[in-house]
Amino acid sequence: MFFPSHLQAPLGFNVSGRAVKMASECGSEISNCPSGDEVLEHDTRQLIENVLGDYTGLSPLRWKQSKTLTTMKRVVEGVIAKHRYAYNGMIAKLDLDDRSDDMSVIKSVAKTLFSDGITNWGRIASLVAFGAVVSQHLKERGRGHCIELVGQEIATYLLSDQRDWLVKNNAWNGFVEFFHVQDPESSVRNTLIAFAGVAGIGATLAMLIR
Questions:
Q1: Does the keyword Magnesium apply (predicted)?
Q2: Are 157 and 131 in contact (CB under 8 A)?
Q3: d(C-alpha 115, C-alpha 166), whole Å
Q4: pLDDT in the model for residue 34
Q5: In the chain, what percentage of residues exceed pLDDT 90?
Q6: What per-residue string of b and e applies to 122-159 under the rule 16 or more CB within 10 Å gives b?
Q7: Could you tell me the CA-to-CA distances from 143 to 74, 93, 119, 161 in Å, in that order?
Q8: pLDDT score, position 61
Q9: How far is CA 102 from CA 53, 74, 77, in A?
Q10: DSSP one-letter string for 126-185
Q11: CB–CB of 123/191 below 8 Å?
């Protein structure tokens, strides 16, 4: 299973099965919430795992969705719909079917994506979309047990290499604000070009440039 019951309660629930909020949504209930780094850690891991679980259908959402989650789902689904062939080309070049269950290649892709020192919400959304497409591919190959590892690689990368940027940009509340008014298409195109450098599919991506 994507969320083994013997290891942890499903994301979005506590061990008794009662729904819980994302830490960043606690508002005035701050006394009941973790603070600082714990909030970012909790929200990031919950967000990524929920998006991948929902996209693959291996962990259907059964709780009230946060603004961050609904926004990320909308953006990820939109990016994948527009650039499906590009993402599929990336997966083909990565030869996932010939790799073991070690998903560290996801972190390698992430590091290359941001290797020019530029970080923005479009790139982060595109990385999560990449993880969603990889997760769907793994599910179709009978390797659904690897999807949690994909989420862990993405979340760990963001919480280490991009932690300072996330904090300076109001974390996931900043993500919601950005995509509330911003059309991500231009930043997504630039991100896909960066991915092409990793996967060697520049010719496939050429059609995305206007």
A1: no
A2: no
A3: 17
A4: 52
A5: 37
A6: bbbbbbbbbbbbbbbbbbeeebbebbbbbbbbbbbbbb
A7: 25, 18, 31, 28
A8: 59
A9: 19, 29, 26
A10: HHHHHHHHHHHHHHHTT-GGGHHHHHHHHHHHHHHTTHHHHHHTTHHHHHHHHHHH--TH
A11: yes
C-alpha dihedral over 155, 159, 164, 170, to 10 degrees? 50
Domains of the chain: 23-208 (1.10.437.10)
Smallest CA-to-CA distance from 183 within 107, 82, 99, 65 is with 82
Please check whether residue 12 is in contact with residue 19, taking contact to mean a CB–CB distance below 8 angstroms.
yes
Q: Which two tokens stand for residue 109?
A: 């892709």
Output the six-digit token pair for 122: 């479009």
Q: What DSSP letter does each residue of 73-104 carry, written as one string? A: HHHHHHHHHHSHHHHHHHHHHHTGGGS-S--H
Q: Is 24 helix (H, G, I), strand (E, B) or coil?
A: helix
